[in-house]
Amino acid sequence: MTDSPLLTIRDLYVEGRAGEDWLPIIKGIDLTLHRGEVLGLIGESGAGKSTLGLAAMGFARDGCRISRGEIRFDGIDLRTTSERAKRKLRGRRIAYVAQSAAASFNPAHKLIDQYAEAPLLHGVMAREQARHDAIELYDKMRLPNPQEIGFRYPHQVSGGQLQRAMTAMAMACRPDLIIFDEPTTALDVTTQIEVLAAIRDIVRQFGTAAIYITHDLAVVAQMADRIKILLRGEQVEEADTRTMLAAPREDYTKSLWAVRSFARAEQPAATDDPIISVRGVTAAYGKTTVLQDVSFDIHAGRTVAVVGESGSGKSTAARVITGLLPPVAGEILLDGTALPPDYRARTRDQLRQCQMIYQMADTALNPKLTLREIIGRPAEMYLGLHGRALRDRVRALLEMIELEPDSYIDRLPSELSGGQKQRIGIARALAADPRLIICDEVTSALDQIVQEGILRLLDKLQSELGLAYMFITHDLATVRAIADDVVVMKQGRIVEQGTKAQVFAPPHAPYTDLLLSSVPEMDPDWLSNLLKARSV
Amino acid sequence: MHAVLIMIAQRLALGALTLIVVSIVIFSATELLPGDLASAILGQSATPETLAALRAQLGLNDPAPVRYWAWLTGALQGDFGVSLATRRPIADMIEQRLGNTLFLALYAAALAVPLALVLGILAALWRNSIFDRVANAGALSAISFPEFFIAYILVLWLAQTGYFPSMVRLTPVTSFPDKLYMSFLPALTLTLVVTAHMMRMTRAAIINLMAQPYIEMARLKGASPLRIVLRHALPNALAPIINVIALNLAYLITGVVVVEVVFVYPGLGQLMVDSVAKRDIAVVQAIALIFASAYVLLNLTADVLSTLTNPRLMKRG
User: Fold this and answer.
1) Rounded (10°) angle between helices B90-125 and B130-144
2) B214 touches chain A (CB under 8 A)
3) How does the entry describe its membrane topology (chain A) (predicted)?
């Protein structure tokens, strides 16, 4: 690379407003990107990845400001140039692909009109030409039915397809640089592969430079030529992909690798009677059947992982067990006796035995209540605890989830981090003294390191209290780490179930095989090899 | 489109049901008043014999449901009965007044709605600027003063100085430009009263959307601020705006009593006030029913329009 770099960032500082003060988000980052090069940007949430990506477009979100440093794109100083000049660059020469395509497409306009917006705005193409071009790129991005899909509204198209349509949209003006901000994080593994392959192809084909932001190392290994690791707004290290994977220098980088090492000890197949038995359950929302003849058991002290893509019926199964959705057919047995299908008909003691933890700890906790009230309420309602007994119980629960009672008991959820909120979710479930806890994607919204902590905590509680878990997830790495038994679901049916060893050892059902092989691996050649293998 | 037709049919049925309930309420309310029509008509001169005779003549001895049914079926055919005070058919009295009221409402709406939308959009575009603050403060002051106060201020400034008439004398032969000229002050008063509400809703609905990821996306595609507001925010903000407009239009038809009185405007509001003073209950009933229908119809229209602006409701699946 002898030509002058496409993008150089020198000693960049970005600040965010916190009340009266400005707190630093990016603290003195340097970045160099050459034409046609893909740079991977890795870090936990809050590391400043997105802020840095946007700063590369000379853009700061409302409430943020670029306070110091230099951003130079192809010789243009983005810090001093006018807003109008920057508008001419955006969409035309630098494009952006957002994390959630579903939220980043305007719900009021058709996909193809949103595609054509930038080319028309920047005078690159006429409308007819832009539409023509859109269809061609939709085809290149391997969208089904490229002739027709652009004429739909965003809500009529699936998440994976929207993400590809958004990448096509970013390509519309054939920019020199694209910022990909976690483009596959919200997708299922099987969909992720398709999107990754399509993005990589098109970036290579047009020789576009890219900054690829993600928290998933295995993903970035497939996409990037070089990797830069961020921690709290500062650079940890930067190296080309293979070097970084083979020989990380910094401890923090090594700890990112280590996360995947947690694994629960193998347990022999269960021999005792199950706590909960799901027997031939069929369930429907209105006329749409979402579960078809589903049966599985959950034993004390064991974790059943229910795996599948979104729409496979995992969460519906949990709703049937808890009685939120009475099934059309089949029944739920608790210790061998059938539970009333509707939770309103169940006794308080039956309800107590099965508790839930939710994916979004943020929205699952009442923001107006203190932790004492949040955790105390189920203890009071189910166990009839009052006064001193109640207070001791809450304190004991906080200790169990490794939060210091004195400093936490009177806090509000807003004063906690994401991982701590999820711990409160766990304590609230434990407060009822349940035998089964249903964990619905409880780690999906968390960073890997925080995830690790939650998984270890759940594991510890399980061995101390003999709890049973039903662990709903789409993340097979998590399944490998914590499951005893695995149930693989697809479109409302169970395609395979058994102990972890049985399900993960070949031969698999074809769908299990597809799921397993779709989990990205650290090997930078993994995606290429996989695509080659699948095309044969 | 099929789903939309079904929805419109459902809303129409619901609207009709609402009107029936309202008509029952109106009818029963007048039933509850002390005395009855006969004693109201005869007043001081009533003797037991004349009262009994009049009651028989008016059909007041029939049970309430029978009289309600007769009243309702008549009203549906445009026959509201006969005024107790003037002995003229109520429909004739109302017809011209209703036309005048609708004229004034449309006139004020034609001024207020575009004004409110433009001000609201500009305030959203330049939010927290001087313009935004002045527009907000101005709109709030206008809405805070009582209508009659605004009306008298306008009379003081624009009528006493001889620019516009302070009294509106409409006859069937008044030409359209003359009508516009004569009704300008009441229309302006109403505009000042209703603009603030619509403007602030437009501003709020747009600003509410400015934190959406698709707005950021539009900015990152290089769209100008005006384009972002008009093309990316406004289409998604239409539903609440339409609803507030409908509510204000309904107010323009039904809530203008004070303004009509100040400017001696021959509208329905005036007629209602006069009829209440004369205890002409039959006329009050008829006008109340018309006002209720205006509310129901306008809200129905707003519902349908806001559905039409939302592709998520229009095109499912």
Assistant:
1) 160
2) yes
3) Peripheral membrane protein
Q: Report the CATH number that the domain containing residue A464 is assigned in CATH.
A: 3.40.50.300
Whether residue A40 is found in the same domain as residue A181: yes
Closest-CA residue of B relative to A53 is B220
Q: How confident is the model at residue B92 (pLDDT cuts 50, 70, 90)?
A: confident
Q: Is B194's pLDDT higher than 80? A: yes
For chain B, say whether A61 makes contact (Cβ under 8 Å): yes
Whether residue A237 sits in one domain with residue A98: yes
Same-domain pairing of A170 and A28:
yes
What range defines the domain where residue A225 resides? 7-261
Residue B316 has pLDDT above 60, yes or no: no
Let me know whether A303 and A406 are in one domain.
yes
Q: What is the pLDDT of residues A217-272, one digit of tens each?
A: 888 888 889 999 998 888 888 888 888 888 888 888 877 766 556 677 777 777 78
Do both A213 and A326 map to the same domain?
A: no
Q: Between chains, do A108 and B236 touch, taking CB under 8 Å as contact?
A: yes
pLDDT band at A100 (very low <50, low <70, confident <90, very high): confident
Residue A2 lies in a domain: no
The pair phi, psi for residue A95, each rounded to 5°, is: -120, 165
Top residue of A87, A166, A167, A213 to mutate, by most chain B CBs within 10 Å, is A87
Amino acid at A498: G
> Mean pLDDT score of chain A, rounded to an integer?
86
- CB-based contact, B224 to chain A, within 8 Å: yes
Chain B positions touching A62 (Cβ under 8 A) are: 211
Give the pLDDT confidence of A213-222 residue by residue, as tens digits: 988 888 888 8
Q: How far is CA B81 from the centre of its chain?
A: 24
3-state secondary structure (DSSP) of residue A204: helix
Task: Examine the pLDDT at A445 and tell me if it is beyond 60.
Answer: yes
Domain assignment of residue A533, yes or no: no
What is the distance in angstroms between the CA of the first residue and the CA of the last residue of chain B? Answer: 14
- Is B221 close to A62, i.e. CB distance below 8 A? no
Give how far B236 is from chain A: nearest CA, Å.
6
Same domain as A281, residue A256: no
Q: Does A310 fall in a domain?
A: yes
Residue A536 has pLDDT above 70, yes or no: no
The partner residue sitting opposite B222, judged by closest CB among A88, A100, A106, is A88
**How many structural domains comprise chain A?**
2
The answer to whether B222 contacts A62, with C-beta atoms less than 8 Å apart, is: no
Q: A444 lies in a domain?
A: yes
Give dist(CA A390, CA A33) in Å, integer. 59
Q: Which long-range contacts (CB under 8 A, 24 or more apart) does A60-67 make?
A: A60/A14, A61/B216, A62/B211, A63/A16, A63/A17, A64/A14, A64/A15, A64/A16, A64/A17, A64/A25, A65/A14, A65/A15, A65/A17, A65/A22, A66/A12, A66/A13, A66/A14, A67/A13, A67/A14, A67/A15, A67/A22
For residue A1, pLDDT beyond 60: no
Q: How far is B198 from chain A (nearest CA, A)?
A: 22
B128: contact with A, CB 8 A cutoff: no
Q: Is the pLDDT of residue A308 over 90?
A: no
Residue A49: is its pLDDT beyond 90? no
Domain boundary pick from A230, A261, A292: A261
In this structure, are A65 and A114 located in the same domain? yes
Interface with chain A: mutation pick from B208, B214, B234, highest number of A CBs within 10 Å: B214
Domains of chain B: 98-279 (1.10.3720.10)
- Distance CA(B229)–CA(B200), nearest Å, equals 15
**A242 in the same domain as A366:** no
pLDDT band at A354 (very low <50, low <70, confident <90, very high): very high
pLDDT of residue A191: 79
Predicted pLDDT at B317: 44
Q: Residue A286: how many CA atoms within 13 Å on its side-chain side?
A: 1
Which one, of A466, A92, A132, lies nearest residue A301 by Cα? A466
Beta-carbon separation of A156 and B213 below 8 A = no
